[in-house]
Amino acid sequence: MKKKYKIIFWILGIFLVFFFVANIFIGVYAPRIIEQQIQKNLKLKATLSKVSLSLPLTIILEKLEIGDLASIKKISFSPNLIALLFGKIVIHGLNIAEPVINLEQSADGKLNLPVLDQKNKAPAIYLTSLNLRDGKIIFTDKKILPGGFQVIVNRLNVKVAKVVFPITSLATNFNITAELLSHQSESFGKITFAGWLDYLAKDMDAELEVKELDLTKFSVYYGNFISNRKLSSARLDLISNFKAKNNALQIITKLNLSNLVYAQDQQPAQPLELDLTKNALDLFTDSKGNLNLEFNIDTLMNNPSLSQEKIKKMILKAAMKNLSHQSPQQLIDKVATVIDQYKGKELGKELKAIFGQ
After folding, report:
1. pTM value?
2. What pLDDT, on a 0 to 100 scale, did the predictor assign at position 14?
């Protein structure tokens, strides 16, 4: 019995010595090796403050900076040694703390993301789980505005893990939360996306929720697509259910626009052509000024497609349902008001007279 304990003691001692030596070796040489590999593959200068090991076998990277593209406070993961023997890189428990990503789109529409050379193609990495905590993505778009339009995805938290049961399932659970900030660090919306995905089978069941989104913050993108008049206030709340089976993806969406307020000094310089899509907010809002839409999108999971023309048709089809909750007199007044604004007051009066007979 004593001999048995003695053997265990020696094995444990050898392991601790090996671990101690490996920790010193990694701490001295690993940062430089990792920096060189990043610079070689991404063509960006990289600096890494520290690399260390912790028991049972976790590699920890601290204060990684990759050019102006990214900075990460801490990364930790546990490699699968058995998989390495078979030439596979399998990582358990990848944890990323406080990453900051700076994305920029140039005037010609190019993102500042590095492109790997075919010769330096990175090996496939298999993750069993991912936990990203308190991340930030700063997106600056110089294509839409010369000075750059900026949106910040703040407090980004991502959890991804394989479905436990059944064991044979390849589905993955995920949960993503974030808030949106303006360039002035003003919060204007929250996003949650959670569910499960089996990408190989092209199956999915997830829900996307957008809460308290100030739609006017994106006016540089939609322009007069939803209204001929400039909006000074518009709140968007949305719930979309993503359900896919064998690559056939259906997105069932409930959308609510509220707090609609138009800028007081925005009057068209000349009569504009009446467009039901651009005047949807004027024609289809309810008596409280809210617009509730419910619509379905049918597409392919591996090749999602949604054109602007298709969006227009969905908006009009969904908005028409709102008419059933409005009285005939309300419709007459709204149509006449819209035509007064864009076609001249006389035509508006005539239309109102026709409907009033």
Report:
1. 0.80
2. 65
